[in-house]
């Protein structure tokens, strides 16, 4: 009987020792796998996106803004290539670039750009990181539209005898300082050359100062029809 109990005790002890060794080995392997996974650096990728539009928040009824770049270059950095690819496509991206001007007054300011709604695990670097913008009090004024065909758009030996435009008057909106510099509003055709016969087409409006410099303004309409009578010079 004692031998039987002794044998049972030895068997139980062997089973206990085997279970302890198995548990220790399993736990050690699990910890090692975690440590190995944590110690291995995850590969990161960078996707560069050009011409990402900037959303600007400001009081558009009170102020007029100008002198700023409307897009920015964004470097997206992350380890998930699928997410980066999704954010690269403007149709599926979730992030956006904003400049908040609501606390700024009249003047020229340097504003830090904000990256909003980036996916988890994705970082972004911007070029540039700041936006330079001119803020002025909003003002509007009506101007007569003058049609123009320039000499360098004519064929040799030809001149313009008459120019008429479909829109004779237009409202111009800008900041007060810029609006005060507007000398005239021109309707110009940019895609013609060597004209030797009458021309009918579409002209783009531009506001210029006394020196002919184009000014940043907004028109009540951006284009108008134009007709030009071209005549051959007398020899």
Can you tag this structure with a few keywords?
single chain, 235 residues, RNA Polymerase Alpha Subunit, Chain A, domain 2, five-stranded mixed beta sheet, 3 helices, elongated
Compact description:
This protein is an alpha+beta fold. It has 3 domains: 1-40; 45-136, RNA Polymerase Alpha Subunit, Chain A, domain 2, CATH 2.170.120; 140-232, YbbR-like domain (RNA Polymerase Alpha Subunit, Chain A, domain 2), CATH 2.170.120.40.
Description:
The protein has 235 residues and is α+β, with helices and mostly antiparallel strands. The protein folds into three domains: 1-40; 45-136, RNA Polymerase Alpha Subunit, Chain A, domain 2; 140-232, YbbR-like domain (RNA Polymerase Alpha Subunit, Chain A, domain 2, Beta Complex), CATH 2.170.120. It contains three helices and 14 strands. The chain has helices at residues 2-39, 81-88, 176-179, and strands spanning 45-57, 63-66, 71-78, 96-100, 107-112, 114-116, 123-127, 130-148, 158-165, 169-175, 184-188, 199-208, 218-219, 223-232. The strands form two sheets. Strands 2, 5, 8, 9, 10, 11, 12, 13 and 14 form a nine-stranded mixed beta sheet that branches. The chain has a five-stranded mixed beta sheet with strand order 6-4-1-3-7, with helices on one face. The model has no long low-confidence stretch (mean pLDDT 88).
């Amino acid at each position: 009987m004692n031998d039987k109990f002794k044998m049972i005790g030895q068997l139980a002890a062997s089973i206990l020792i085997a279970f302890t060794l198995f548990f220790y080995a399993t736990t050690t392997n699990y910890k090692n796998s975690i440590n190995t996974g944590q110690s291995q650096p995850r590969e990161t990728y960078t996707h560069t996106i050009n011409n990402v539009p900037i959303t600007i928040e400001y009081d558009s009824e009170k102020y007029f803004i100008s002198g700023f770049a409307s897009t920015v270059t964004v470097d997206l950095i992350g380890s998930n290539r699928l997410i980066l690819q999704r954010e690269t496509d403007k149709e599926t991206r979730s992030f956006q670039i904003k400049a908040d001007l609501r606390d700024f007054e009249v003047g020229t300011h340097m504003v830090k750009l904000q990256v909003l709604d980036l996916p988890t695990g994705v970082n972004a670097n911007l070029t540039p990181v700041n936006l330079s913008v001119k803020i002025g009090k909003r003002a509007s004024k009506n101007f007569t539209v003058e049609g123009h065909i320039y000499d360098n758009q004519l064929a040799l030996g030809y001149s313009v005898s008459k120019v008429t435009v479909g829109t004779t008057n237009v409202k111009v909106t800008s900041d007060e300082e810029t609006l005060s510099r507007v000398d005239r509003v021109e309707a110009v055709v940019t895609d013609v050359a060597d004209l030797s016969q009458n021309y009918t087409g579409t002209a783009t409006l531009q506001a210029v100062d006394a020196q002919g410099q184009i000014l940043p303004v907004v028109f009540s309409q951006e284009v108008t029809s134009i007709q030009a009578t071209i005549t051959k010079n007398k020899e």
